[in-house]
Amino acid sequence: MSYGEQIREGLRVPSRELRQAIPQVYEGYKQLHDAALAPGALDVKTKEFIALAIAVSKECDGCIVAHAHGAALRGASEEEVAEAIGVAILMNGGPGTVYGPRAFAAFREFREQASR
Fold it and tell me: What's the total number of domains in the chain?
């Protein structure tokens, strides 16, 4: 199983159980998510790059997978994602060199799936 799918699978059951325990919190978060990622002055692909770079900086595997997938769905190129990850490495230092490759691997995985 690939990196992205491992993370998704590992979070599937506990996320569902917590979402059922606190549905109003998750509904509020979904509204915030949808509003923040809606097209506006910045397009959605650019917002996915920002979210992916922050996910690398926060060392959040679930976030990395979600926004790598989002970038792939929005037609991001490897070069664009690599540059966004490069900014995360600049701002985060050494940990960025650990989580950045994870983000790049997840993006490549999801981009390949999207092209099928």
Answer: 1
